[in-house]
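User: Reviewer 2 asked us to show a designed sequence for the structure in our supplementary figure. I'm pasting the structure tokens here. Could you produce the per-position amino acids so we can include them in the response letter?
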């Protein structure tokens, strides 16, 4: 049951991700169970159940799916250990990506292309994720990988989507042309207005990086309208509120999408946020109420960001959740890590997650030999077999939390932290409330491009096959479809 404001409550059906409007009075009584319904309400409920509205397709779909379902093969490539920024929250400890060593050499490129040919899924579509350190500091390899992908596509028909996570402080000669040729998705790490960004993401020398990055964003934007620009925002507090930071970037009219994520900050370093801190970093703090309040404020202001003349198409995580509810989709896992997503690095390891590079206990193969077949089972567990999540009401949307953050917080890939759960649950509640207030035009937006955009590290999802339009077959006075 979700508070829908002064007039109504919202009933979210975990079994199939349906959303129904009900009165406040009915909502209050339903908290006590179905036994608290009036005779008339109970009759309607039974009719809805008979029509298939109250159903449990999510569990069946989640259990019957395989690791191959729900997402394309995605290859994350760590181009270099080096980064020219010294971000305060960098999970690689100040920007040097201590777990990655050196630069990716040419001899790994052929191995990656061979791995793709051997492991491509039924979709025959593969996403290349260029990552680092700062990947543009090894641009020669990016170019080689794109050429290799082009040749493989020509030979086999395998289709490629290219995406880069970059701080965009540098633009090597030829890069914008490459972005345009391959219709890149360019995810630029930028945290908001100049003051917020420069505080969070200074250069190694301590100077601001905002002005240079935005200037480069303009150059990328000018190169082609087919390049998708994503503003990747990390929130770790600061003087400017999150909605104002989003608005500052939105006004530039450069970005197609935003991605907003609470920073992973050791407790010892932050009084604001503490998501996924390690035990040795000091006593755990809860996620700041200030952040969760700001999240509510942003979701409330969200509809005002869709305006004719601005290329904004949504916040990726919000649109993904909206898609699951509106279309009836089940998340099979929080991310594709260890399912169809693998990270290649200069040390020739294959890892199930880019944040775990350098930890041999998580290694699942080598670039020359491919997957070893070991170490993948806990990355492919159905959500109903997770020890904590199997009882959670958002499990078919959240699907277990970031495994790397879970591991850091609890020592178990599949046991989340209370702070991480609080964020995930509030996110779903906020989106549910937002959905109930949108005009039908918002519901019908095209969300197909989200599949390629690496939302939540490529969350695998499938249609849950709930009976479409089942609500419309029953005439109800007490339960109404959102
Ligand atoms: S909110 Fe927490 S308990 Fe629920 S599915 Fe997500 S990680 Fe698991
Ligand atoms: S969601 Fe977490 S575990 Fe999954 S790939 Fe991303 S960082 Fe790794």
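Assistant: Here is a per-position design you can include in the supplement:
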């Amino acid at each position: 049951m979700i508070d829908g404001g002064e007039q109504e409550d919202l009933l979210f059906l975990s079994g199939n991700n349906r959303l129904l409007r009900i009165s406040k009075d009915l909502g209050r009584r339903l908290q006590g169970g179905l036994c608290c319904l009036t005779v008339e309400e109970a009759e309607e409920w039974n009719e809805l159940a008979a029509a298939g509205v109250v159903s449990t397709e999510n569990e069946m779909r989640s259990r019957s799916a395989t690791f191959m379902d729900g997402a394309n093969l995605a290859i994350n490539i760590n181009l270099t250990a080096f980064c020219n920024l010294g971000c305060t929250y960098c999970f690689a400890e100040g920007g040097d990506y201590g777990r990655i060593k050196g630069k990716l050499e040419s001899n790994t490129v052929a191995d990656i292309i061979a791995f793709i040919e051997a492991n491509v899924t039924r979709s025959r579509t593969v996403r290349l994720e260029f990552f680092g350190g700062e990947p543009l500091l090894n641009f020669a390899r990016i170019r080689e990988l794109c050429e290799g992908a082009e040749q493989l596509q020509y030979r086999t028909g395998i289709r490629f989507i290219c995406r880069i996570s970059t701080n965009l402080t540098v633009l090597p000669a030829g890069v914008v042309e490459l972005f345009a040729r391959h219709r890149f998705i360019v995810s630029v790490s930028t945290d908001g207005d100049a003051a917020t960004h420069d505080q969070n993401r200074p250069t190694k020398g301590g100077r601001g990086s905002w002005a240079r990055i935005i200037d480069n964003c303009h150059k990328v934007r000018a190169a082609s309208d087919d390049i998708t620009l994503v503003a990747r925002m990390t929130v770790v507090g600061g003087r400017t509120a999150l909605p104002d930071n989003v608005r500052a970037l939105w006004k530039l009219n450069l970005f197609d999408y935003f991605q907003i994520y609470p920073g992973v900050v050791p407790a010892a370093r932050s009084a604001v946020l503490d998501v996924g801190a390690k035990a040795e970093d000091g006593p755990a703090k809860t996620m700041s109420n200030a952040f969760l309040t700001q999240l509510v404020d942003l979701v409330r202001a969200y509809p005002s960001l869709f305006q004719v003349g601005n290329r904004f198409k949504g916040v990726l995580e919000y649109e993904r959740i909206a898609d699951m509810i509106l279309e009836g989709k089940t998340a099979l896992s929080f991310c594709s890590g260890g399912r169809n997503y693998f990270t290649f690095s200069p040390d020739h390891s294959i890892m199930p997650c880019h944040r775990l590079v350098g930890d041999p206990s998580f290694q699942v193969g080598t670039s020359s030999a491919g997957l070893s077949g070991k170490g993948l089972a806990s990355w492919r567990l159905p959500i109903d077999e997770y020890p904590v999540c199997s009882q959670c009401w958002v499990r078919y949307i959240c699907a277990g939390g970031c495994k790397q953050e879970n591991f850091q917080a609890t020592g178990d890939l599949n046991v989340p932290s209370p702070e991480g759960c609080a964020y995930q649950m509030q996110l779903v509640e906020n989106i549910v409330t937002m959905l109930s207030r949108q005009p039908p035009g918002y519901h019908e937006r095209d969300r197909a491009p989200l599949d390629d955009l690496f939302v939540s590290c490529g969350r695998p999802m499938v249609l849950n096959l709930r009976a479409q339009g089942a609500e419309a077959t029953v005439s109800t006075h007490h339960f109404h479809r959102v």
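For the response letter, you might also mention the following. The radius of gyration is 23 Å. The first strand starts at residue 2 and ends at 3.
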